[in-house]
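Troubleshooting entry. The earlier prediction with V47 gave an output that would not parse, so I re-checked the input for stray whitespace and re-submitted. Clean input:
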Amino acid sequence: MNAMTPPPGDDIAAILDKARSRQRLTPDEALILAVAAPLHDLCAAAMDDRLARHGRNAYYVHNVHVNFTNVCVNACRFCAFSKTKGAPGARTLSAADIVADLDARGDAPIREIHVVGGLNPELPLEYYLDMLRAIAKARPDAGIKAFTAVEVAHLADTRGVSEFEILSALREAGLMMLPGGGAEVFSPALRARLCPEKITGERWLQIHATAHGMGLPTNATMLFGHIESWADRVAHLSALRDLQDLTGGFTCFIPLAYQPANNTLGAKGPDGVTVLRLMALSRLFLDNIPHLKAYWAMLGIKAAQMALWAGADDFDGTIVEERIGHAAGADSPKGLTLSELRHAIEAAGMVPVERTPDFKPLGSSRP
Ligand code: V47
Ligand code: SF4
């Protein structure tokens, strides 16, 4: 569709009707809604869908982020987190460092340990396995969501073994699920500009398919608000929906708002209306992915609260402490207490429901 010639209002109304009756949208229809639907109508349709799925529940998890190394052989142009080996600020934590940090949190009932790092070729597979075992021992009540598909590919390539073998070894050591990072935007032309060293979108999808085939659930992300178009965004969502039709293994989709500071990309980040339009479109288009996350660390608390009215049903967690977005200038807090998190959800008019990493509700709050 040519974005310069808006489709007739009747077309938009018909597509919105289709969305409201929860019929599957085609990519062309999604693109029309993205560029031309009135904002309020788009958000109202997504809100109806969200209410039908989850009522007023907004899920959250008591979690901790562990970024075990920021040393990375890649140099994604949007990334302000990674360092080259030996550079000032480069750091790699030992399993003992990680356990000491978890122990310092006392008896806080943490449910999720989110583990993501750079691609540091000096770390042997045993390091990853020891880290998982140590975390599982220190926090037996928490689930470990660890290692993006990019890290899984790096481990497989540097050891000369299959991704299946890597995932099996990680699972044996305590891995519960994969986070959604590394997807960025699947378009090969954009990846060549954004992250030329990174695995292709096809390989990212294939690793998630392998995980799903083994019964490991995963999340999916899209980095947005930089140099991508609405057509690129819809193509990305479409690839996720197609894979989900085959495997059913994605639990949650997370649009990651690009943070513009301290990196070489030179883009400016999404405005609030783009955040709401993308949230609403994602809820309506991804009819087979149950959860949509308003990731407050990248969106900021206020935009994340508004996203709960545009289709999102999840507010992520306490985090403490977020480093990837903050290295790139995120102006949200680096973490929230449980009461701050619940308050942010309640102030937005939703019902906070604590969950496990794989979205099993804890307790019994329902609207
Ligand atoms: O893939 C890097 C992103 C991702 C920037 O699964 C940036 O629940 C914004 O995987 N601005 C890693 N984003 C984070 C990740 C994640 C985070 C939260 C929840 C979950 C989940 C997964 O961070 C990378 C990349 O897309 N990133 N730089 C930046 N400047
Ligand atoms: Fe490395 Fe990940 Fe940063 Fe890319 S986004 S440079 S792979 S840490």
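This one parsed fine. Residues 31 and 231 are 7 Å apart (CA to CA).
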